[in-house]
Design goal:
Distance between the termini: 54 Å
Radius of gyration: 19 Å
Structural class: alpha/beta
Helix content: 40-55%
Number of helices: 11
Strand content: 5-15%
């Protein structure tokens, strides 16, 4: 079955049951929806153009810092308010909704890592979701991510439960992180983290499932299996995607259901194909790509400038 046969699927932004069914189609058919961090209309258009050329669904996501850049770096973005980050994410979501149908592919709109200190940003986006839901019967965004991996696991899960309870009536999907992704992302610096912190355990992950599944099935888990944000040379990071299958097996033994967990692969840039294949087989439904596309964007500008240097200098 093609993803076009998923009930409710369409060209443009998809949310709710259709968005969740698309992620389940990916899981069943051994692929993941690629999620790209965008900071401008040009980066949004680039992702949509690539998706259209390949006839594949894509996910456009905004980080807190990227969202502030989307609104404009000169705007105030006060600690505890994060008004520019809220404005930029909401504006970006509306832009995607306006242009995505013209590209003829399904698109999910997502917000990336939200640490505890960034919760005002999350609250602001949920307020926009609720207003949009009241007017149109669906949330503005397809999904949001809470990254409370810096907090104790119990607190992480409790805060996720609180927010999923708020999101569930809109059928808005929650992504959460248990364990940590190495490197640096949006002001959260895990570059010096102990190596054992880079690997979640089956017990850790199942505690998330136990906490969230009674509220809504619409959640994904960014479990740690050695992932690191950014591009890294092969061998510098010990990825263990086989741990994801161990987590699935543990959850199956507890629930009797086959592959009940839905995983997200963070730090996808520079990953080797066999690691990606192992992760997909274990139930990864979303894979983040950022550093690779940042580099491609910058390199494209550089090559254009070098090719047109004489002309540009003559203007």
């Amino acid at each position: 079955m093609s993803f076009w046969d998923v009930p409710g699927i369409k060209a443009g932004v998809v949310t709710g049951d259709a968005a969740w069914a698309l992620l389940q189609h990916a899981k069943t058919n051994g692929y993941a929806i690629p999620a790209f961090n965008c900071t401008s209309s040009s980066t949004i258009n680039s992702v949509l153009e690539a998706g259209a050329k390949l006839n594949r669904p894509v996910m456009i996501q905004f980080s807190e810092g990227g969202a502030a850049f989307m609104a404009g770096k000169s705007l105030p973005n006060d600690k505890g308010k994060l008004q520019a980050s809220i404005l930029g994410a909401v504006a970006g979501a509306h832009l995607v909704r306006a242009v995505a149908p013209a590209y003829g592919i399904p698109v999910l709109v997502h917000s990336d890592h939200c640490a505890k200190k960034l919760l005002p940003w999350f609250d602001g986006m949920l307020e926009a979701d609720e207003a949009f839901f009241k007017a149109h019967g669906e949330p503005l965004f397809s999904s949001h991510m809470l990254d409370l991996s810096e907090e104790p696991d119990e607190e992480n899960i409790e805060i996720c439960k609180k927010y999923l309870t708020r999101m569930a009536p809109m059928k808005c999907i929650l992504e959460m992180e248990i364990g940590i992704t190495g490197g640096v992302e949006d002001g959260v610096d895990n570059s010096g983290a102990a190596k054992e912190k880079l690997y979640s355990t089956p017990e850790d992950v199942f505690a998330v499932y136990e906490g969230l599944s009674p509220i809504s099935p619409m959640f994904t888990i960014a479990a740690a299996f050695g992932n690191v944000h950014g591009v890294y040379k092969a061998g510098n990071v010990v990825l263990k995607p086989e741990l994801l299958q161990e987590m699935q097996d543990y959850a199956k033994a507890k629930t009797g259901m086959d592959r009940p967990l839905n995983f997200v692969f963070h730090g996808g840039s520079g990953s080797e194909k066999h690691h990606i294949a192992t992760a997909l087989a274990a139930g990864v439904v979303k894979m983040n790509v950022d550093t690779d596309t940042q580099w491609a964007y910058w390199e494209g500008l550089l090559k254009f400038y070098k090719a047109k240097e004489g002309y540009l200098q003559g203007q």
